[in-house]
Amino acid sequence: MNNLRLVIFLGLISLILLGGSKNALSQRIVADTVSVESNVKVRSAHKASMYSLMFPGLGQAYNKKYWKIPILYLGIALDVYAINWNTKNYKKYKSAYQDLSLYTDWKYRPEGSTLEEPTSKSYEDLFKTVDFETTSQSDDTYYETVFQNGKDSYKHDRDLTYIILVGVYVLNIVDAAVDAHFSNFNVNDDLTIRVEPAVSYSAFSGNSLGLRCQITF
Questions:
Q1: How far is CA 124 from CA 97, 107, 131, 138, 149, in A?
Q2: DUF5683 domain: which residues (predicted)?
Q3: pLDDT for 88-137, tens place per residue?
Q4: Can you give the pTM of this predicted structure?
Q5: DSSP notation for 7-42
């Protein structure tokens, strides 16, 4: 019986020593992992946002997301084109509306009025097939409404494209900051399972030998 107890005791000592060596190995692995992580370049979200604030796309370059820069500038270029197009048409319809209003005031002037015929007739450029000298008053009112609605519509679209341009600029800053923030997370797919001996105590059976399983992820 004494020999059996000695064998069990030596076995426990061996398992504990093996477990200790595994713990030491695990600590070395963890230490090595921490050392590798410290070499990873940490990007500053504040710095990335400031770069994009100073110059759009610079924050994306700082985050090494170069593929986003052409998309950003394509969006800016399309928005600038829309601003110019809407501004040009807004000016056309605005001038046409103002010129037609002055022309109808002269055309339907009261008897004995000293109004002179306006020389600017930009409305004829928009409706080249219409002879405004022979149109009726209801027709002139219709064309004035068309020009006014066109002027208001293009002005609305121009203002909207300005808002979109500001939104693209702000989105460029937010995107750079978020990219820099999430680039600092270390996503590790490694899964470690460690099995080591353990001694537990019970009031009924006393000390008992067992195994403990630890999962690290």
A1: 11, 15, 8, 17, 17
A2: 43-217
A3: 999 999 999 999 999 999 999 988 888 898 999 999 999 999 999 999 99
A4: 0.64
A5: HHHHHHHHHHHHHHHHHHHHHHHHHHHHHHHHTSPP
Closest by CA to 152, choosing from 76, 86, 75, is 86
**Look-up: residue for tokens 């939104």?**
167
Q: Which residues, 6 or more positions from 193, have their beta carbon under 8 angstroms from its beta carbon?
A: 213, 214, 215, 216
Sequence spans of domains, the chain: 2-40+188-216, 45-182
211 SS3 class:
strand
**Tokens describing residue 26:** 């695990």
For CA atoms 72, 74, 79, 80, give the dihedral sign: positive
Buried residues in 49-86 as b, exposed as e (16+ CB within 10 A): bbbbbeebbbbbbbbebeebbeebeebbeebeebbeeb
